[in-house]
Amino acid sequence: MSWFLALRETARSGLSVQRTRLEPLLALRGAAGLAITIWVSMWALGTEAAVSSAFGAFQAAIATFQRSWRPRPELALASGTSLAVSTFLGYITISHLALFVALLVLWTFAAGLTWAAGPTAGLIASSNVAIMLVTVTLPTSVAQAAGHAAMMIFGGLVQAALIVLVPVRRWGRHRDALADALAAEADYARRLRHDPVAPFDPLPLMVAREAAAVTPRQARRRPAELHGARGLAERIRPVLASLADPAVGVPEEGRARDLVRELLGAAATILDAAAGAIRRGDPVELPPTAVAAFSTPATGAVLTGPAYRAASRLGRLLGDVVETASGGGTGQLQQVSTLKGGGGTGQRPPVATSESGRGTGQRPPVATPEASTSPPSSPSSRKTLLRPTFPALIPAALRSIRKELHPNSPVTRHATRVTAVTATGYLLGAALPFGHGYWAPLAAVMIMRPDFSQTYSRAVARLAGTVIGVGVATGALQATHAGPHLSAALAVASAALMYLLMSSAQFVAQACIAAYVVFLLGTAGEQWTQTAPERILLTVVGGVLAMVAYAVYPAWETPRLRTLLADWLAAQGRYTAAVVRHYAEPVGKAAPDVREALLSARDARAAWHAAVARAADEPVRHRGLSRVAADDAEDALTQMGRVTMLMEAHLPERDARPVPPAAGLADALRTATEKGAKAVRERRVPRWDAVRDALDDPTWSIADDPVVRHGSRMLHRCLTELSEALDPTPPSSDDRGPPQRSGT
């Protein structure tokens, strides 16, 4: 992408408006905490202390909005306290330019490094530096600076107390995350009706897992409908894929396929009903037609082998979902009982050994596990994901920062870049004859992010928002001739609007912040003529410095794509190898190694997708991995993950017949993908001779399970397609091709 296109796209992103769910009660609570802090400070210490405390309360409220499932009161208090320390130390050194610049450099570099600990920590630290640049100019003595710092801590304490005393939608975000996961499963079931090999984005399941992590105290108070449903959603996904896939299920056309489409549609309807009930906290209302689809006697006569097992398992899992979503109530018992008899109530036909691979002429029990890595749905066996306490987050954050302390780290480059820009902006602002020179470094700190697209989009948004916000606030002050109390009220209103709309549009949030600052400084007696012109001009200076700095000293995502693709390949290989090995060594439902490998593969996949999204807006060449190659490689690994999921859905019982050659294939997959990942990093084309040789083992001929037989060959096909995507030269005519697969 050229620089012109990159700038156009980032500008469009910064000025875009998104349709998001508004949370007025949360905004009202944050504004109430801000109002309490301002009025108490004005009564106790005067208007200037009120301005300082208002900044503390304002930032403390923002901190609790950042990617938090349940706002931590400790986070609000930590935000106010850290701002107080920054302001006090800044005031002590502000009279000595060299000493203050040294403190500013140290504080800014540390704030830049905190992005390694997550966006919440990075935003709080960056905001502290930006706000410190304003608040250090307000006190006139060390005693006043101490009083201002104390009121900042008071502002954080007020916001923390309101979080505890006035909870808003106590479990609302947890409900939304779980409901979104079930709704994503429902959408997947509908897409499988028309595309039997449709992909599935596991992001909603990852978000639901993150939301499910609670403290021991929260675990005791969690609503019953939030227990266990996430694990059921994890187990439903591979069952849906197994039921739809023609390679291990039913033909693409015919009576059996029509029945599968009906079951998938009914499953989607039931999952949507459960998602809505969990989101609202209401009983589940199931359409009778959807329930009837899983109770028809024809199912057992039409479906056989893996397809029948998947249909039976799906019915029972849906019954568990309905039971869990109903909070353990008895109002749905009849529907749950009907669903758990899924697969039909008719006579089960005998199944040949060649299809089941687990019997001696009789149909195996329908309780065959479809996702053996997940715990059973009974309450006694559910495992609680423990959320770390706030003190435990501190050493974890320090470890993350230490890990990023090297020259090639994007976080370290960001810290270096933002430090240089902040120091330069402060010195430049002090040299210009405008006064209030801190606006330039303040704008730069608030704009700059570790990646290109966010930095440039925020620069555009901040400039547009500053012009709008300062203009509106100036007009309001001129029209009302506002005194300190009215200015404070207008500042609180601006903050409330920012809390409400901060996730909808960047430039709207920046406009609200600009108006908030103008009104707040008006509370301290500053006229609009002292803030508006220089704020706009110096904001432009800070934005230009930030954009030039990223162009001169960038941290592009594009060159890192090969490394992240290699990481995904290695993680996917470990997951696939763990699944395949359990066909040679059946362990039943207890397979924690598979679950752990799956989570690692998901994390690697998410890191790849995030990097690709950021790289799409960068004005740099692909440097060895073109966009077409990246898309084709992603498709190959996605298909590999789908095939592995199908095989995981049919993991054998502990007493099932082993498939000995699967052990050799598992070893070959693990070794080959590790070597393949190294080849990808070194810009070489990976080879899969070891996997092909493992599939040439003659003992595969006695492997009568269609899932492992077809799945193994499909895995090699996916790896071959990955190599073809990364190979810049066309294949020669005498290349040895992969074993042919059947069914797809």
Helix content: 55-70%
| Backbone CA Rg | 30 Å
Unreliable spans are 343-381, 733-744
Q: Quote the distance from N terminus to C terminus.
A: 37 Å
> Mean of the pLDDT scores?
82
Helix/strand-derived category reads mainly alpha
Report on the biggest sheet. Answer: none
Q: How many strands in all?
A: 0
Q: What is the H-and-E element order? A: HHHHHHHHHHHHHHHHHHHHHHHHHHHHHH
Q: What's the domain count?
A: 3
Please tell me what the overall shape is: globular
Strand content: under 5%
Tally of individual helices? 30
Write a short abstract of this structure.
Helices cover about 70% and strands about 0% of the residues.
What does this molecule look like?
With 744 residues, this protein is mainly α. The protein is 68% helix and 0% strand. The chain has helices at 3-14, 24-44, 47-63, 73-93, 97-113, 119-135, 142-165, 172-194, 203-212, 216-221, 229-244, 255-280, 288-293, 299-302, 305-325, 333-340, 353-356, 390-403, 410-431, 439-447, 452-480, 484-501, 506-523, 532-552, 561-584, 592-615, 627-649, 661-681, 689-695, 706-726. The longest helix has 29 residues, at 452-480.
Annotate the secondary structure layout.
Layout: H1 3-14, H2 24-44, H3 47-63, H4 73-93, H5 97-113, H6 119-135, H7 142-165, H8 172-194, H9 203-212, H10 216-221, H11 229-244, H12 255-280, H13 288-293, H14 299-302, H15 305-325, H16 333-340, H17 353-356, H18 390-403, H19 410-431, H20 439-447, H21 452-480, H22 484-501, H23 506-523, H24 532-552, H25 561-584, H26 592-615, H27 627-649, H28 661-681, H29 689-695, H30 706-726
